[in-house]
Amino acid sequence: MLAFKISNPNVSFGEIGDVNLFRELSESCGIDPDGNFGFSGQEMIAICKAIPELDNLYHDAEPKLENLNFYKTLVDEKFGIEATGEAVMLPSGNWDINLSYTRIKSNLDFVYTFGAELLHVLYNCDMDYNSWKNRPVVDRFREEYSVHSS
Q1: Residues 2, 67: contact at Cβ < 8 Å?
Q2: Which neighbouring-strand residues pair with 88?
Q3: What secondary structure letter does DSSP report for 64?
Q4: How far apart are CA 117 and CA 99, in angstroms?
Q5: According to the model, what pLDDT value does residue 92 have?
Q6: Measured between alpha carbons, how far is residue 65 from residues 2, 43, 45, 93, 121 in Å?
Q7: pTM value > 0.70
Q8: How far is 112 from 23, CA to CA, in rounded Å?
Q9: How far lies 56's CA from each of 6, 28, 130, in Å?
Q10: How many CB atoms lie within 10 A of CB 94?
């Protein structure tokens, strides 16, 4: 299980492709979107609890989550590009969410990236490990498009 547990409201996360939505959500919940994100567990919990949509999304994905990891640099293995975040299925069928602490600078970066990675977990949660690991690149593009434009 992840180091922090959040729960509740039954709200959808909205259109993830619209970063302005995340700015408005953050501001309406008392979070400064341009404030520096500090990578502390307390700060992550406070932000997640403050934004009902993020809280709800985490609550839905939490049973499938194993670890939340922070790395200086993340490189997507299939695309070979630097990433801000990634959701990685483990052989157990659970998921790790990995975030780049050099690319996530603001609270808005965290809210957007963490929300997107939670959606990847939910999008793929019925898939088994071998299917996820061996899916064609075109399916990964389709998933990215679905998550970021839904």
Answers
A1: yes
A2: 96
A3: G
A4: 9
A5: 95
A6: 7, 19, 15, 9, 8
A7: yes
A8: 9
A9: 8, 16, 29
A10: 17
Residue with tokens 């501001």: 27
Question: How much is the pLDDT for 24?
Answer: 86
Token reading at 132 = 């996820």
Indicate if the alpha-carbon torsion angle 29, 17, 128, 89 is positive or negative: negative
**pLDDT of 95-150, one tens digit each?**
999 999 899 999 999 998 999 899 999 988 888 898 888 888 777 777 776 666 55
Distances (CA, A) of 25 to 7, 73, 111, 123: 18, 28, 10, 22
Whether the Cβ atoms of residue 104 and residue 110 lie closer than 8 Å to each other: yes
CA distance 115 to 37: 15
Tokens 């302005």 found at: 20
Which of helix, strand or coil describes residue 120? helix
| Amino acid present at 8 | N
Task: Name the one residue in this structure whose structure tokens are 């949509």.
Answer: 53
pLDDT at position 145: 63
Centre a 10 Å sphere on the Cβ of residue 98 and count the other Cβ atoms it contains: 18
Per-residue CA distances from 104 to 38, 48, 83 (Å):
10, 16, 10
